[in-house]
Structure formats: C-alpha cells, structure tokens
Amino acid sequence: MTEHRVKVAVPAPFFHALDYLPGDLELVPGMRVQVPLGRRQVVGVVTAVERTIDDEIRCRPITAVLDNGAPLPADLLSLCNWAADYYCHPLGEVLAAALPAGLRKLPGKAIRRRKSPKALRSPSSAGEALQRAPTPEQAVVLDALAGQPPGFGVDLIEGVTGSGKTEIYLHRVQAAIEAQGQALVLTPEIGLTPQLVERFRQRFGDGVAVFHSGMTERARTDTWQACSEGRCPVVIGTRSAVFLPLPRLALIVIDEEHDASFKQQDGFRYSARDIAIVRAQRAAVPVILGSATPSLESLHNVARGRYRHHRLNARAGAARMPQPRLLDLRNTKLRDGLSAELIDTASRHLAAGGQVLFFVNRRGYAPALLCHECGWLAPCPHCDARLTLHRARGRLICHHCGSDSRVPLRCGQCSSTDLIPVGQGTERVEDALRALYPDLRVERIDSDRARLAGELDRLLADIHSRDIRILVGTQMLAKGHDFEGLTLVGVIDADQALYSSDFRAVERMGQLLTQVTGRAGRGATSGEVVVQTHQPDHPQLQRWLRDGYAGLSRELLEERRLMGFPPFSHLALLRADALDADAAQDFLQKVAALIPGDRSIDKLGPVPAPMERRANRVRAQLLLRSQNRMGLQRLLAELVPQLGSLPGARRVRWSVDVDPIDLY
DNA sequence: AGCACGCCGACT
DNA sequence: GTCGGCGTGCTC
C-alpha cells in the first residue's frame, strides 16, 4: 500500500531526518512543523515529502504546521544540507543554528504579528551627497570588479589598513542594489567596529539592516523576516548572518576574511566565510573578500587561479604605512615589561602631542604568580594552567575555566609570603604607565574593561577627542579602529607566537602585528611602530619586517607546502574529553581503529590535548589529514554517524571539527 | 539533546 | 521503608 511520508529534521543529534505522517496537511520542503518526539513536542523542518511503501519504521503524525507565511527557501535548505554533510553535523542542529530563536520555538499563546514594513529612506538620495570620489588606485580595482563577467567569482582585495576597502564595498553594493539585488556583508564583530555599519548607513540609510548575537531574539527574528521578504537591500552581519534568507541575493562581501571569528568554535563548527563562498557559487553571485592580511587559504586560492587578486597599497590622504622596527630586549632592563628605549620613544611622541598605544595580548595583571622562595606557581585547581593575577580585583582567575579565588597571602607549597607576579598583562602595563605619566590620561581597553554596555563607546569617544593620551589594549584594539592622533604603537612582547606549537601561530602573529601597525599614523603625522622582542634574529620576524605580511605569507605558504599542512592538505580534528583519566583517549583509540589503514588519510594520534586537563576534564584528540578533501569527507560521512553508538561514547563528550583553526 | 527507566546509597 | 544519584537506551 502506498502512503505519504514526510521527512522532518528535528533538533536532536540524529544524522537522518525522521519520518512522519502528513495526514491531510499540505506540506512542502522548508516548512516548519510541530512534531512529537518521544514525549515532547518539537519544532522541525520538512526536508522532503515522499511516497513510500516502507512500513518498517513506526511513524507518528505531524501535530501542526507552524508557518503561516513562507517556508524556509529551497536554496537555504539545500545550503544547510550541504553544510550538515560537509561539517558532519546533524541537519536538525544545523537548521537550529540557521534559524533565529524566534522561529525555533513553539509559539506561545500570543500570535506574533509582523510589523508593517518601515518606509525606506531612498538609498540614492541618502547616498549621492556622501559619495566620495575614488582614488586612482581604487578606480583601477573598481573598474576591474565592474568588468568581471556576471555570476560567481571571488575577488580578494588585499588592502593595507586605511587604503579604502570599504569604499570598494560601498560601490559594489550600490551596483547590486541598483540592479534590484540584495547584498550580504559579513564582518567578524559588529559591536567592536561600528564604523563599518556607520559608513553603510551614511550611504544607504535605512536600507541597511544589521544582524548579530547582541540583538534581542525578537529583533533578530524581525530582521530575518524582513530579509526573507526582500525588504532589506543591504544586511551587515556576523557569522550567523550567512544563513539569512535573501531572495534577491546579488553580492556577498566578507570583510576581514582572515578573521578567526568567522569560524564557530563549538557545537556546529562551521566557517561562515567558507559557507558564504559555497552559497555565492550556488546562487551564481560574486564574492568580495577583503583583508589587510589575507588568510593563507585565500592567498593559495589566488595562486591557483581560483580567486582574482587586487591590491590597494596607498593610504588615504597624507598617511603613510609606518616601517616597524624591532627593539632587542636581550640584556636590557625591563620595568613591568617596558624597556627604557620604548619609554623614551613614547615620551617623545607624547611631548609632541601624539597619542600612544601599547599592545599587550594578555588580560589581567600578570599571567602567573610565583613563590620566590620555592618556585611554586599558583595553579588552576581544575586545569593544567597557571592562574592569572587580576590585582585590582584581588583575584586569581583561570582564563580557561573561569575559576576565581582570592589572591593567597602565602605560597601553597612552602607558606612563604614572598609571592611575585611574573610576566605582564594589560593591567600591569596600565599601572606602570600611570606611574610614569601621572599627568596624562591612561586607559586600558580589553574585554574585562569593555564588558559594560556603552563603556567601550565612551572610551572610544575619549580617544577621538584626544582626552585619552595613552592606551593599553589587547587585540580588541587592533581591529578596525581609526585613531587619527595615534603616532606610536608599542608591541610589548612579540615572542609568544614564536614559541607556540600551533602551526598557525606565526600566521596569526603576522596578521596581528600588521593590523596593529596599521593603527599608527592614520592622520597627517607619520607613525612609528616599535616591537619589543627577545628573538630579534628570528627569521620569520625578520621576514615580516623586511617584506611585510605579503612576504611572510609567501614564506609560510612554502613552509605549509613542505609540511603538508593546510592549505596543501585538509584536516579534521576529533576531540574528546571525559572525567576519568583515560576515557577520552580510549574512545579515540576505538575511533582510530575504525579508520582503514588507507595511505590517503593520515591518522595523527590519538594524543593528549596540548592542555590535557581543562575544567576537570581530561582531553584527547585525533587529527585526520588528507590531500584529498572528497576522500576525507567520504570517510567522515561513514565514520561520524557511528561514533555515538561506540562503547564508551556515553562516558565522553566528543566532537568533530572539519577545517579546524585551533589545534588544542 | 532531552527524557525515561533502572538499579544502588543515605535520610525523613 | 523512600528520595535521588547518573549509566544506558530511545526518540520517526
């Protein structure tokens, strides 16, 4: 007997959609439905409607259809399906990540009514007045972009900080809008870089929607709805915006494409940049990638002829990119991490009226507290890590698990009271600079400081008004901010990355150093950048100094090729952790045993994670590497759905990370 | 994931 | 004698 069956993806870790009976409901793929699952009711998405004679599995009826309006568009459903396969993640959970919370929950008593669409300020009237004439260099890039054949293609714009990448985006977005299309602009963090949204608002007025995790659930759902109805010509969003429904999608811009925050680091571990490129390919629309420091992946795609490449070298106005110099710390006297020469340089800039930024990539006062008598280092009770001293708060805090305790008066081992902070964080450098320059306003900007709403905005305003003369900040400050009066950037310690075992550490160091270098000399005065180091002869640091990020990245690509690491191979990282000592590694050992001894896939591990114990869980990992992406994906597609039923799987937490960026 | 069932320790 | 710990099994 022939019957209709409906495949429904539910928010649970199943690798296949479940079957339900439609009854007399009219269903099409993409509709949200309420279905019974065990003894609860959940929201699922219809993925297919089939005629079937397979009666073997039990089948319950669909409770209700939840969409009064349009179903999830077919292109998005299909994109989510692709992503679920590529990242080996259950489709129902992928859809849950793609839909705003308001569409994932069962409706309450009140039926949500759609707001009537706002009248949009006409883009052209708002825009024309503020249109800047492109520089000759920008004009070359714009001509090249305008001359591309229609359809999919990726253009990477490698432009130094301040060279006007945003202006290029604005022109291409304008062209997309004029052709009645919608443009999607992805950015790493909206809260930290309000300038990008500002520039778009100046040009396109209320046509610009934003979408990010800081918005209320309600606002996100409304924006989702507006996008799906084609009411947003431009939407600027973070990672999850890659899943917004855009019926007239005409262009995708990915700003700061190298930025790690495009990769989700838990649950469904997707790369918004990579999904965006797949989406553009499927929708046959162009992609613009922009960065001062492109990822090695994108540069490799340029080298292979997959992406087109454009450069913007000139900075706007009179500003020149500073030539950084290294400051050899060996055998110099340091005061809270600051050398006398750096202090002299800073004093000179301050006396001349400039602003100075000290870049310290660590929060807190000091990354460790040491007993001077016996060598004890205050450890985190839950992790294989040292506690960070937050002196102003009088706390020792673990930056890995959040463990928080009072600063002890005595050594935990020998009871000595001679405890000294070692190393320096932002708070310590801030204190030192306050003592050195009591008459100047010194402020620290890091995530501890900017946690309060509006605090970051206030600080940024006081920087622009030159009220703040000296800034101490983490990489939070390295991104996107324009500080006209900033003439000196001092990097306190460039060496951390040079000691790291992570294969991407030097790439990230180069990106960070280049980004902070771009902070100096944005105004008329040429800037100065000083990098303190104990490794002044390190070849990669030297390479960066001589040939900039472009030279360093060429060298790093060559190194990756020789080592067989991405982008010259593909990685998937299986992680596991557990409360008992060996459970995670034993589990991954069983996983490894399931993988055929195929020459095309390297099994690296299982091994203990670089930080073996974290938040009281013992962690292990198994890295898979292959030259052949399809081969790796086929293996994972076969392997991953079995892992949950492996003996011991319930005793461990495990995850799969396709294209991992951090190997810890 | 969420929720049941089920079989062993300390309490009104 | 019960309340409740989390091990394991299942959800169309």
Automatic annotation (TrEMBL):
Region spans: Disordered: 113-134
Binding site for Zn(2+) 1: C371, C374, C411, C414
Family: Belongs to the helicase family. PriA subfamily.
HAMAP family: PriA
Gene: priA
Protein name, entry field: Replication restart protein PriA
Residues that bind Zn(2+) 2: C380, C383, C398, C401
Organism: Panacagrimonas perspica
UniProt-listed GO biological process terms: DNA recombination; DNA replication initiation; DNA replication, synthesis of primer; double-strand break repair
MF-aspect GO terms: 3'-5' DNA helicase activity; ATP binding; ATP hydrolysis activity; DNA binding; zinc ion binding
UniProt keyword terms in alphabetical order: ATP-binding, DNA replication, DNA-binding, Helicase, Hydrolase, Isomerase, Metal-binding, Nucleotide-binding, Primosome, Zinc
Gene3D superfamilies named in the record: P-loop containing nucleotide triphosphate hydrolases, PriA, 3(prime) DNA-binding domain
Enzyme class: isomerase
Cofactor note as given: Binds 2 zinc ions per subunit.
